């Protein structure tokens, strides 16, 4: 379980951060509506929360990591 927790931290804070930065640049060039962007971040937070809950830690930690990233 500890390896899964460390894995989610590493994935979200490295690869997840890189993907979100590139997605933000792509989004800013193409769209002007901020509602889609907000919805995307809410979806990412819920996805990370469900993954965190699945591996046995509280969902708030997954959503917090998305906010940190």
Description of the molecule:
With 69 residues, the protein is an all-alpha fold. Helices cover 88% and strands 0% of the residues. The chain contains 3 helices and no strands. Helix 1 packs antiparallel against helix 2 (34-55), helix 1 (2-30) crosses helix 3 (59-68) and helix 2 (34-55) packs across helix 3 (59-68). The relative contact order is 0.18.
Draw up the topology in text.
Blueprint: H1 2-30, H2 34-55, H3 59-68
Helix pairs in contact: 1-2, 1-3, 2-3
Summarize the model shown.
The protein has 69 residues and is mostly helical. The protein is 88% helix and 0% strand.
**Radius of gyration, in angstroms, nearest whole number:** 13 Å
**Major sheet characteristics:** none
In terms of per-residue confidence, which ranges show pLDDT below 50 for 5 or more consecutive residues? none
Q: Approximately how much helix is present in the residues?
A: over 70%
User: Pairing-aware structural class of the strands and helices?
Assistant: mainly alpha
Name some characteristics of this structure:
mainly alpha; elongated; 69 residues; single chain
